[in-house]
Amino acid sequence: MALGTDYEQQDCALARALEVVGERWSLLILRDAFYGVQRFNDFLAHLGIPRAVLTARLNALVAAGVLRKEPYQQAPLRHGYLLTGIGLELWGPLYQLSRWGGRHATAGGPHHLFAHAVCGTDLDVVGVCPRCGGAPVPPAEIAMRPNPARGGTHRDDPVSRSLVRPHRLLEPIASAAAAA
CB of 64 within 8 A of CB of 20? Predict the structure, then answer.
């Protein structure tokens, strides 16, 4: 018997959230969207995900209002995938889950470090700038850089090559099409 894709017996906000972002690959698609990936082929190359699964996950995230499709080419028509306002709200949980994985589930720590782009101070475990204080830093004000303790990436896709340099979140990465 196949596993269901919902939690209809659970009257719980976390269960409802998991119905939107809890399927395999969905959080990694969102991570890449925050990193600046927008084009289908770039998600495909970076994630190594089957084309049909990527299509289904992107369609589900668009239907849920987490991503929106925006044309970037007319002939043939091609769309990019951009985070919406409610998609941007997922940065905090995604960042904290990533930090947790870097501390407890990954040898050598996280692959990327995140800093407040305004002052250059690394963010704390919940995404607050210790120097500026206050609320967690919004994604548009975050700069990411490779963690020097991890060494280089072993991946050679266009997204991985773009992410070896410091980069602001949400800033579009150089796509596979531009690299060709």
Answer: yes
